[in-house]
Structures are given as C-alpha cells and as structure tokens.
Amino acid sequence: MDNVLVTKSNHLVEAGYKLTLNEQRLILIFISQLDSRKPLPKDNDFVITATGFSKMFNVSLNQSYEILEDAASRLYERDIKTFDKLAKTRGRFRWVDAVKYWDGEAKVTLSFSRYIVPYLTLLHQQFTTYELKQVSQLKTAYSIRFYELLIQFIKTGERYISLEKLRDLFEITKEYPRFFDFKKRIITPSINEINLNTDLCVEWDVVKKGRVIIGLSFIFQERNNKNS
C-alpha cells in the first residue's frame, strides 16, 4: 500500500456529497489508479478485486465480496454538488458513468463520469494529495472527509470551517440540529479517529459569534513517524 496516492482537485475536496464508508473507500481506490498529471486513459476502465480491497482495508475476504457487491450496486446513484462562488453557480453530477460487479470473478469495474474527470486528471495546481494508507483504517466516511479537509491545508497547519459549510459538504443540513449532537456524533469521533489512525495530530475548538457557535477552528501537523 506504500506510495499509493489519492489526488483530487481542491474543488472536489470542497464539494458536497454523501457516501457510505465503503462507497468512499471504493471511489478512493479507483482514484488512486489515476495519474493526476495525465489525461484519463482512453478506455476509462478501472478494476478492483475483492482480494485487493481486502488487503487495502484490512477486512476479511468474505467481507470484501459483500462490500464490493453492495457498494457497486449503489455507487451509480451517488452524486456530487459543486459550489463556485466566483461564477455564482452550483453544479450536480454523478461520480461514475458505469459500474459493474462481476459475480464469478469477485471484482468491480468502473468508468468515471466525464464531468468528474477535470477534478481528477491534468492537475497541476490547486489540488490535494495524500497516501491512501493514511485513511485506510478510518471507520467512518466523515473521518475521511475531515482528513481531506485538513490535509488540504497541511502547509499552514490551520483551518477554519463554518458549521454551515461543513453541513453542506457532508450533506447533513437537517441532521443533528443541536451542536451537542453534531459534536458527539460527527466531530469528536472523526477527529479522535484521525489522531489515532493517521499521520495527523489535530486539535480543534469552536468559534463563537457572541454566544452562538458559528464554526470550528483546527490546528494540526504531521507526525514525525508516519503510519506504516
């Protein structure tokens, strides 16, 4: 798993979408097969086997069969919402044009949507790259999203995110309306997981306007001894 990299345009890191943990893992595996500096291969056909998934995420082979079949069956319906403040536009498109689960071979093949290709290929600026192994042991999709949002700013080691934006990115605008519940269910478990299982050390605090919590402030840095 060493040197297996995930690279995304920062616009994709900042997009709104909601995937399950295993859908997220499946997408990341396929993204890691791309060379982000080059055009999309003409066949636009990528493969992951149950064996490969099992090794990548340290799950049993039997679990991998079920995970791949389930994730593949729903991935075609998942979409992404982009926000462009300068152009004052909102876009919506699918992750994939096609996805298949092969029963006899226990594998998934996938073709990326043409609309997402510019966010994954020919990237020479404004992108985020990290090692797939750093998120391989995270157990929630929210933890992976938090990791990406922080590693995007690793050069400064600081980031502020408004609660409104965070809810939009995670597509949980109506869930956990009380901050106490949002913190308990989403924020605290995610940051604890990142501190325990990745190369980042993260501290965070709330930002208030008067008595109202309006956002989160993060301070973070890479560990000297990265996860192996």
Describe the model.
- This protein is an alpha+beta fold and 228 residues long.
- It folds into two domains: 5-119, Orthogonal Bundle (Arc Repressor Mutant, subunit A); 137-222, Orthogonal Bundle (Arc Repressor Mutant, subunit A).
- It has helices spanning 10-13, 21-32, 50-57, 61-75, 141-151, 163-170, 179-197, and strands at residues 5-9, 46-49, 79-84, 89-94, 96-102, 107-112, 127-131, 158-162, 200-209, 212-222.
- The strands form four sheets. Strands 2-6-5 form a three-stranded antiparallel beta sheet.
- A hairpin with a 2-residue loop joins β9 and β10 (212-222).
- α5 crosses α7 (179-197).
- It starts with a strand and ends in a 6-residue tail after the last strand.
- The model has no long low-confidence stretch (mean pLDDT 93).
